Amino acid sequence: xxxxxxxxxxxxxxxxxxxxxxxxxxxxxxxxxxxxxxxxxxxxxxxxxxxxxxxxxxxxxxxxxxxxxxxxxxxxxxxxxxxxxxxxxxxxxxxxxxxxxxxxxxxxxxxxxxxxxxxxxxxxxxxxxxxxxxxxxxxxxxxxxxxxxxxxxxxxxxxxxxxxxxxxxxxxxxxxxxxxxxxxxxxxxxxxxxxxxxxxxxxxxxxxxxxxxxxxxxxxxxxxxxxxxxxxxxxxxxxxxxxxxxxxxxxxxxxxxxxxxxxxxxxxxxxxxxxxxxxxxxxxxxxxxxxxxxxxxxxxxxxxxxxxxxxxxxxxxxxxxxxxxxxxxxxxxxxxxxxxxxxxxxxxxxxxxxxxxxxxxxxxxxxxxxxxxxxxxxxxxxxxxxxxxxxxxxxxxxxxxxxxxxxxxxxxxxxxxxxxxxxxxxxxxxxxxxxxxxxxxxxxxxxxxxxxxxxxxxxxxxxxxxxxxxxxxxxxxxxxxxxxxxxxxxxxxx
Length: 494
What we know:
By secondary structure, the protein is mainly alpha-helical. It has 21 helices and 2 strands. It has a two-stranded antiparallel ribbon. α1 (about 5-25) packs antiparallel against α2, α3 packs parallel to α15 (about 325-355) and α10 (about 235-240) packs across α14.
């Protein structure tokens, strides 16, 4: 409870309420009021989330801050919320990112400002609902609702091919989710009429239905991550989305797929998860190696970072299916770190695009001469994206590689190639954009970052360095939940 209010409900509905208040400001005549309400709501949402961490008991593996109320009595559907060491860090990441996105679009978005800001706030609350839901139907409702704001953000404020990218994003994620709903309905009947996710964890399912349920979950979560080969919607969505949309898509929405594996696939169908772990590891390693090579070939900075996200999220799914603490905790750390780094990288590209209206690497060169402060920030984030020790990008990858070594040396070997490929595509892009001769008079006339842009990038830089040097505050809260999950999987063998 916070000031007498249920904390998780407050974290979900406060951003949604402020988002609706922003929409109520009307047209662009009240754009400044919309911006002020949006930044107030997003900062307040983050402040409300801080007690979630401070009051969290890291030694407990049970759900904390639980709330449960009847929603649809006839079908035993409840408004049931709770968090553990898996969901709590992701809620914090979401609440941390939203104010930065609002700040990043402060001056850039000049049309339909209230709708733009409102969409991000509403989506923030919905995503918190995804991470906090303990009822399958409530989870599904939030999961599908999260598509709507992002669909609008891409489709309205995106680039020339925004409608195609928005529809592709929507259809890919919607179709996968429908199979997840079918799995939920099956589990409802075999659990004697319960949609409780925690009840699903206790079901002693035979291996055949487990495999079918695993495949249903896989199609929903693999698209969201996205895993190879269902990743093709992501580069299109990133390239066409406005900067804020790319930041939230990479930093938050992709994590919903990773969260789904930990909340549903591993605990509900543990035997199928172990039987099909080899397939998941192979798909993850293809993402790490093949997509890393694809990233090297990109001429568009946004598309390069989008493919980089697919490769880095391959590390996440690899870690989940190693079935050891190093792998799962490393994958969780990688999700948080990727939220910081990918968000920062897309913001850096947005800074350049706002000035020169081009994302093509070939249009730049010598940017350091006119934007030295920006070049320093971009260097830090590029190094973190390449996995430099001392940055958050190294911690999760190192932990997953450690977990892979315990299972199979060759898994670790191929996973470690991301440190090479990541350095190649990230630093080569950085070299061509930032260093060398000044490419054109337009580059020579670029203005360095403003105070607002400096503040956003500085906050992310501190987060990347803090987590790289001292990840313990994040890893500490995961231990008990991850240990409980691994024990549950180990004890469930048929």
